[in-house]
Amino acid sequence: MRYAVFSDIHSNLEAYEAVLEAISKEKADAYYCCGDIVGYGADPAECILKTKAINPVIIAGNHDWASGGQTDMSNFTSSAKAAVLWTAEKLSKGDKEYLNNLRLINKDKFLMVHGSPSHPEEFNYVFGLNDAYPAFLRMQEENIRLCFIGHTHAAGVLIEDMGYITFNPWPSVKLAKGKKYIINVGSVGQPRDSNPRAAYCIYDTDMETIEIKRVEYDIVKAQEKIVKAGLPAVLAERLSLGK
Asked: The pTM is what?
């Protein structure tokens, strides 16, 4: 089986269309999304519509629930709050219901959460080794080998082996028995790992490989839409920087 896993679309239609086109050539058997369809970008309703069309296994991101009015924005930056308020005005009642009905966790073929598997309802970040310890502890308690996440917008793989945690900087990983993995699939619509290209992941169960892939998209068009919509300029500027 080949699973396409992606996250953090953030209302960036241009990036989303580029990723979906790339995935269509991957011969993926199923789509999985780690949340945050909306927020930051200028096409929230269109991105929800595309998500419904491909019908992925999907969980909630903090921007999804905030835009639907289900969670507060106490931990949001000023630009993130502005984007959520703008997004909420653009969404229909049905769109908000769709976002609010997204669950926090999926344990179908593997574990999938937006932030950390440790208290996923808090949308904590897994930035590095220190954040990974409680996450891997939760995986150990539930006897889970693989966990896919997003939220930080920075792609990469954390590996736990006999209590030791390492970070894999390469775009592909060969899975090994006895080890546990947290795979951050990066962001479709707003990468923050100094690579502005849209990110997605392919998990091949036959080859036992994880591949994080990047794809070019029309950044300028996405930026122009953000500016025209009256959203904070920083949300457009950061797209070309990958930060």
From this structure: 0.96
